[in-house]
Amino acid sequence: MKIGLFDSGIGGVSVLKKLTYLNGAHYIYIADTERAPYGIKTPETLETFVFQFIDFFERKNVEEIFAACNTTDSIILERGIKFDIKYHSIVRAGVNASKSKNVGVIGTNITIKNETYKKQLELLGKNVQQKAAQLFVSLVEEGIFYGRMVEAIANFYLNSFRKTNIDELILGCTHFPFLKGIISRVLPRVKIIDPAEELSKEIPVNKTKKPFVEFYVTGDVKEFEKKLKRINFRVPHVIHKLETRKLKVITVEKVNNIDWNVRSG
Length: 265
Known about the structure:
The chain is an alpha/beta fold. The chain folds into two domains: 2-90 and 199-257, 3-Layer(aba) Sandwich (Rossmann fold), CATH 3.40.50.1860; 92-195, 3-Layer(aba) Sandwich (Rossmann fold). It contains twelve helices and ten strands. It has a six-stranded parallel sheet with strand order 4-3-1-2-9-10. The protein has a four-stranded parallel sheet with strand order 6-5-7-8, with helices on both faces. The chain is globular and about 50 Å long.
């Protein structure tokens, strides 16, 4: 079984770790570090990236895709993008994991602007407070998980939640679980939800084989390898260089004319 994941960088590895623990599949992970960060890109640009990756996965015979990026997942859901590889949404998983009435959401600028979490949670009758926390992405990509600077930024983003009555906080970006410790310290009475934990329930448990990961990195391969060591990623893997110029050229106009069949996860 081949499973695909993609993200702007190291964040999606928080999803990958949970999947590899449960299923010894062959994983193909695209780390688009050359074009990161995604949170400040336009929806139109991100949509072209998504279709480039879907095309790449199809050529690699990927059977299922697990969302490893909330930002692109919010674009997929908001724009009703459909394709014929089975797709598992991390946003929907995060919504399903929420059990309380009063919920907070933090994410990238795009995820929060799209209000994807907010709209889906409100359909369930929940009260939702949300806030963009874009700098968290940069901290994780730089491997800065602790220290006074991290504490200051965490307080800056999260202090507003102290004035609300939220019971849960959804980490609406796959980079954010790497900062879960300090987030919990700032909001000690709030349950912290990592959507990847709920998402991992959608993969069948199969430990008969050991997992193997092929990373395809659009930016600096050696730098990405350092990041994997920094987060103690020990699953057997190989890292390839992926040239963005060799990805299928897909413009916004072409995207609008693509007709994909949906097989939702």
